[in-house]
Fold this sequence. Notes:
Layout: E1 9-13, H1 20-34, E2 40-44, H2 50-57, E3 62-66, H3 83-89, E4 93-96, H4 99-104, H5 109-121, E5 125-130, H6 134-138, H7 142-153, H8 159-162, E6 165-169, H9 183-201, H10 203-206, E7 211-214, H11 222-226, E8 233-236, H12 243-253
Parallel strand pairs: 1-2, 1-8, 2-3, 3-4, 4-5, 5-6, 6-7, 7-8
Bound molecules: 2-phosphoglycolic acid.
2-phosphoglycolic acid binds at residues 13, 170, 175-176, 214-217, 235-239.
Amino acid sequence: MNKNLRPAVxxxxxxxxxxxxxxxxxIEDMKPLVANANCDVVVCVPYVDLQAALDATxxxxxxxxxxxxxxxxSGAFTGEISAEMLTSMGVEYVIIGHSERRTxxxxxxxxxxxxxxxxxxxxxxxxxxxxxxxxxxxxxxxDEVVAVQTKLDLAGVTADELKKVIxxxxxxxxxxxxxxxxxxxxEETCGVIRKVLAGMYGADVADTVTIQYGGSMNAKNAAELxxxxxxxGGLIGGASLKPADFATIVAAASI
Length: 255
Ligand code: PGA
């Protein structure tokens, strides 16, 4: 396959967990455990933890990301954070379109697309989340759902800009539930996303895009999921808060 055409990326998504002091402690614990990684390692943390995470990761192989970003450069958007605010701190990555944002905070493919555009314009690397809910999988429309999300969320993104996009396939029914997609399901749907990208950008470009699986990936199931030809990494929620488990997943992606 073409796995050597794209970097493996393991990214933690801390969600709404950890104070700045706790973030420092967690990263200090994690650093030595992932120092020999042969994949890209990212921690996406709450806004208030970003500076602590940047300080703690300085000089290490861990990169820092935010969990969302607003689409406007500045303005009357109480409670929001712009891409420039993030890049000015040294934050390189940002998760966009996470299902928790879509479900609880009214994100749509249109706003996800606007956020993607703003992050790319600012030079950030985007981790774009797509995935079906349980009813959609049971109705047999998973492929259509992820195809539509991928197309709408990437509208207007050029092949050159796509170099800074990682796609995270996250079946919503698997997030935080302990229900993991089987390796075959993860492989199949990541493959569908790559086909959609091939249709949009050509197969050569699609082969260079990192596609992660996310949804209850843990120290036990990571190796098998990551060995699938189209699964190039993971977006890790719960297990990213446990340094030893996160390091085991990083090691599984480093082979
Ligand atoms: P989980 O979360 O690993 O806790 O299922 C994954 C995610 O939401 O990105």
